[in-house]
Amino acid sequence: MIIEEKERLNDYIQKVQQRAEHFIGHPMATDFDYSDLYPLLKYPLNNGGDPLVGSTYDLNSRSIEKEVIDFFASLFRAPKNNSWGYVTNGGSEGNLYGLYLARELYPQGMVYYSEATHYSVQKNMHVLGMPSIVIRSQPTGEMDYDDLKEAIRLHRHQPAIILANIGTAMTEAKDDVPSIRRILKAGAIKSHYIHCDAALAGTYLALLEEDHSFDFSHCVDSIAISGHKFIGSPIPCGVVIVKKNYKERIGRAIQYIGTIDTTVTGSRNGHSPVFLWYALKQMGREGLRARAENSLQLALYAVQQLQHIGVNAWRNHNALTVVFPQPSKEICVKWQLASEGGLSHIICMPGITKETIDRFVCDLAEEMSTNVGDKQ
Predict the structure, then answer these.
(1) Could you read off the pLDDT of 334-360 as tens digits, one per residue?
(2) 135 - beta bridge partners?
(3) Residue 376 domain-assigned (yes or no)
(4) Phi, psi (rounded to 5 degrees) for 193
(5) Of the residues 280, 303, 331, the one at which a domain ends
(6) Which of 55, 211, 281, 353 has its CA 20 to 30 A from that of 134?
(7) For the chain, how many structural domains are there in total?
């Protein structure tokens, strides 16, 4: 590498380090340390094909991936003899997989999802060629169940495929699966499929709540989470858990690699399962629960500090996301705030500290003070 390229790389690394100090607007944990795993970066780990079936490509992490799948299958109370999953490239791929299975099960099905649903879902349905109806959201971001009931009534001749949000992108609102199931029952919709997009909140809610109402014990059919969010990873990744009998409808044998094609992608990153496995083994359930409780306490602190300076900040129940009126472009750029419809948010992920929140609140208070002075 020539000197100019080395300088460019060093400049880029410094920029990343600096910007990481003001990273509070997106849901990625930043407190991880995977240095023990660096030796594996010398090898092309590839988990192509079904994670539970061997392959002629032996540089893989399938045995480790299976342990990760088992952890989340247990966490989400999946049926022991009828569950399957794999480590994905992220929550969007998990949503695609859930919708893919739903389409294969109900080719004539209608998809229902709220207007607060992640943008990837609409793209996934376009790729899959699935018809859909957008359901209104409540001010908090939660699905409007009256609107869902009416939409299903008008299309009750079609199987219903429900995309339930367990933490929306902007306000981290949770759709209530028991309410959705009551609507399906009242409408006599016997053919239905419920997929839960639990990208951010699914992991920690399942650890905190004794009876989390969005898992397989509440008759959902698939759940997708992101691994790089609450747990943390330098590479985007996720996990999707489904009912095994649904997965078996789509698998086909691939002779030259000696395995079965049951995932969305052919080649799959073999390093991400190791990152997740390492984090799960280091923290365990109790460590993950404490991690969640600390983050929720930080979110409460952020709301209090923002309200103290006169900002109308709020959050949904058991949410790490703190919502408030959108500040200036300068503040949004400096702190990398996600904004939509006049609202911005910060997300109190592991790795963010009270000191970070205090610096952000100080910047916001200074701007508010300046604006007041300009008006006088």
Answers:
(1) 999 999 999 999 999 999 999 999 999
(2) 114
(3) no
(4) -145, 130
(5) 280
(6) 211
(7) 2
CATH number of the domain where residue 334 is located: 3.90.1150.10
The pTM (predicted TM-score) of the whole model is 0.94
SS3 labels along the chain: CCHHHHHHHHHHHHHHHHHHHHCCCCCCCCCCCCHHHHHHHHCCCECCCCCCCCCCCCCCCHHHHHHHHHHHHHHCCCCCCCEEEEEECCHHHHHHHHHHHHHHHCCCCEEEEECCCCHHHHHHHHHHCCCEEEECECCCCCECHHHHHHHHHHCCCCCEEEEEEECCCCCCCECCHHHHHHHHHHCCCCCEEEEEECCCHHHHHHHHCCCCCCCHHHCCCEEEEECHHHHHCCCCCEEEEEEHHHHCCCCEEEHHHCEEECCCCCCCECCHHHHHHHHHHHHHHHHHHHHHHHHHHHHHHHHHHHHHCCCCCECCCCCCEEEEECCCHHHHHHHCCEEECCEEEEECCCCCCHHHHHHHHHHHHHHHHHHHHHHC
* Residue 109's CATH number: 3.40.640.10
